[in-house]
Design a protein that fits this description.
single chain, alpha+beta, 2,3-Dihydroxybiphenyl 1,2-Dioxygenase, domain 1, eight-stranded mixed sheet
């Protein structure tokens, strides 16, 4: 496989309810909210099992939310250029997560939201 999936994310209107739901549904450990994000966002860990970590949180008031996965790439800008050439479009340009990596979001040709995380830029989201 080329670029690996390294993170998932569930973002919606009620962060606390979503965190409770996924904790109870799958026995995930949900960490404390990350204050620097500006929204109630916490990491989810599939404790004692294989799998990737993820984040569950609230979005901005004007955003309905999304469920997505993040693909690790060596260069966000180059990946977004390639994606745009294939019919996708940038939803969120490259941004530095406070205390974490550089990330970006794009929409595939059918409108699905997918994340990118730049390898070597810090702790994964």
């Amino acid at each position: 496989m080329g670029n690996p999936v390294v993170h998932f994310e569930v973002v919606g209107k009620d962060a606390a309810a979503l965190q409770r739901f996924y904790k109870q549904a799958f026995d995930w450990k949900i960490g404390d909210p990350i204050p620097a994000t500006g929204v109630q966002y916490a990491m989810a860990f599939p404790e004692g099992q294989s799998g990737i970590n993820g984040g569950i949180g609230g979005g901005r008031d004007d955003y309905g939310g999304h469920v997505t996965f993040y693909v690790e790439v060596p260069d966000l800008e180059a990946a977004l250029t390639k994606i745009q050439g294939l019919g996708g479009d940038t939803m969120m340009p490259p941004d530095q997560v406070p205390g974490g990596p550089r990330i970006a979001l794009f929409r595939d040709p059918e409108g699905h939201v997918v994340g990118l995380v730049q390898s070597g830029t810090g702790r994964r989201p």
